[in-house]
Protein: L-rhamnose isomerase
Organism: Streptomyces lasalocidi
Amino acid sequence: MTDLAAVKAALKTQAVETPSWAYGNSGTRFKVFAQAGVPRTPREKIEDAAKVHEVTGVAPTVALHIPWDTVDDYAALAKFAEERGVRLGAVNSNTFQDDAYRLGSICHPEATVRRKALDHLLECVDIMDATGSADLKLWFADGTNYPGQDDVRGRQDRLAEGLAAVYERLGDDQRMLLEYKLFEPAFYTTDVPDWGTAYAHCLKLGARAQVVVDTGHHAPGTNIEFIVATLLREGKLGGFDFNSRFYADDDLMVGAADPFQLFRIMYEVVRGGGFGPDVAFMLDQCHNIEAKIPAIIRSVMNVQEATAKALLVDRTALAAAQRSGDVLEANAVLMDAYNTDVRPLLAEVREEMGLDADPIAAYRRSGWAERIVAERVGGQQAGWGA
Ligand code: PSV
Ligand code: MN
């Protein structure tokens, strides 16, 4: 039997960080379909994030991407966020959108380019100091397209050197979260392609360097929950970039493509003691054809549903079945939790938190969608890359 009161209490403490870039326009390399009411400034992105938190109660922070969210005064931006009921979360660096980075950033063969990339990363830590953000999220587009193009091992040395310089600069309460990605934009080698490479670098760096698992960044069929279990066991799981993919990384809504996988991941999180403030649960998504704010609300709800099911697993019964080698019973215990309709439970949790039981309906009723369409006229809409 699971303790329902404890499950509800845990669900009330959940925190899912939403990404500033998900509120802006995005698309594929073929077409960006602009939507009405899209934010034009970092402040407007924060206002949308605040709306998501207002109706869900579990999205208290918003991640920044630099330079997409560049402002003159970051402390003022943090204050603006707080006045709207949210805080600024992870600072995401960007060493992939400058002509200088054609052959990479901190792994680039030329020292001047490596320096430029490093300066950007150090600037991101300055921004964290001003915003009060605890996490620097690093993703490198670095890699090669052709065998022989560069020295694969030498690139690892350059990577280690650059990461060490950033690590040195971190404050005591700041962490560096290293993200891996199987491929893209590099097609032959990627300098941080998998959790093992990220883990090896983080291990050398120290306790404040942790691995971040972007659910979209694996080969089809990869057992992501095993990676999660392993990283948690090693004390090296820093956080998630949640999204869904069908083929390659495509930033669809988390839990949309494979809710069962999300449940399995969240089960390992709960089992491994990762459900808490030490693991950052972030969304990293783009909403290309669907309405953005409702899509983000839906994504937050998908994470909540997977978490509720994971918390409902009868771990005593599961352990007993596992110990006695009862394969079918062990599987049945897990599936029972997965097959539970947790929507009524979450509705209760929301009502107990003083929220509407249905966040999407609450958002629709709020009039925010109409208001931003009417008010956000003129100016330059934010897009993926601004
Ligand atoms: C790279 O594909 C990535 O997942 C990184 O987290 C980037 O910062 C983000 O996407 C940009 O959308
Ligand atoms: Mn990501």
Observations:
- The chain is about 45% helix and 10% strand.
- The chain has a mean pLDDT of 97.
- The pocket of alpha-D-psicofuranose (ligand 1) is lined by residues 21, 92, 139, 179, 181, 214, 241, 249, 284 (CB under 6 Å).
- The chain has one domain: 4-375.
